[in-house]
Write a structure and sequence with these properties.
The protein has strands at about 10, 15-20, 25-30, 50-55, 60-65, 70, 80, 85, 90, 95-100, 105, 130-135, 135-140, 145-150, 160-165, 170-175, 180-190, 200-205, 210-215, 215-220, 225-230, 240-245, 250-255, 255-260. It is mainly beta. A hairpin with a 2-residue loop joins β15 and β16 (about 170-175). It is globular, with a radius of gyration of 17 Å. The model is unreliable at about 275-280 (pLDDT under 50).
């Protein structure tokens, strides 16, 4: 979402970011958004992926084709926030989320590499979840095969992560320490036996419930992983975000369309004000 609550969505195959609003319809707001070259290799989806706003309202995004995480400054210039870990190139950053004190977490599966784990261009052995603090990139968790979507609990004491692996369709829950360190990683929900796509993006409402794209549609969970309901969808949604002035409209990207549903609860939308007493990176 932009600062006004209008949805921005990544068109990975066409390497652009689009915006939708009721008055103007859909427009392209950024080209070559995730891959620097004009032409993406056939069959690849290397355009920008997950995106969010930082505390100053600046667009921050994952660029799988360029293998980096960047921020768009107010004057349009690009600042690289992360492109390497321990001197090695990232795989293909996928999704990201800010803590309200400015810590940035992002996932780095190998989806943007042609042969994924077996690709000769892959430099890192881990498919990690990373945190950017004070300009340094550190590994926050390395126990998932395909880390993907990210969301904080409303009090930011827990971080939820989806594992986008058809052989292990999991959502994980981690405790978050004041310094940003993650611990006590455990499986929140396992839907490996469910037919359909692997887990992808997710969001949290103000009551702490999760809205998770996964096999067969959108799964709604409570903070302990109990399934509260499911919205069955075809095509299946890949990601979701809260929008509009009220924050009570949930937008979903579904292959070739963007859908929306009005909810009775409100979601958490960036940018977030820093909470009283928050730790500083």
């Amino acid at each position: 979402m932009d600062a006004a609550g209008s949805p921005l969505f990544a068109d990975l195959p066409h390497n652009v970011i689009r915006k939708w609003d009721p008055a103007g319809g859909t427009t392209v707001v950024r080209t070559r958004s995730g891959y620097a070259d004009a032409d993406i290799p056939p069959g690849k989806a290397m355009g920008s992926n997950g995106m969010t706003l930082d505390g100053q309202g600046r667009l921050t995004l994952c660029e799988p084709g360029n293998r980096r995480v960047t921020r768009i400054e107010d004057d349009g210039t690009v600042t690289v926030l992360a492109d390497r870990f321990d001197g090695q190139r990232l795989n293909s950053p996928n999704d990201l989320v800010f803590r309200s004190d400015g810590l940035l977490y992002f996932t780095d599966p190998p989806h943007g590499l042609a042969l994924e784990d077996d690709d000769p261009a892959k430099e890192l052995t881990v498919n990690g979840l990373y945190v950017v603090a004070g300009g340094a990139v550190r590994l926050a968790a390395g126990d998932m095969t395909r880390p993907n979507g990210l969301a904080f609990s409303p009090d930011e004491r827990h971080l939820y992560v989806s594992n986008s692996d058809g052989r292990a369709k999991l959502w994980m829950k981690y405790d978050v320490a004041a310094d940003g360190t993650l611990g006590n990683g455990r499986v929140l929900l396992d839907l490996t036996s469910e037919h359909g796509q692997a887990p992808d993006g997710m969001k949290v409402d103000r009551d702490g419930n999760l809205y998770c794209t996964g096999p067969g549609g959108l799964w709604i969970l409570d903070a302990d992983g109990a399934v509260l309901g499911r919205i069955k969808m075809r095509p299946e949604p890949s990601n979701c975000a809260w929008g509009d002035d009220s924050g009570a409209t949930l937008y979903l990207t579904c292959v070739d369309r963007v859908c929306r549903i009005t909810t009775k609860v409100r979601g958490i939308r960036p940018p977030l004000p820093a909470p009283t007493g928050a730790s500083t990176a």
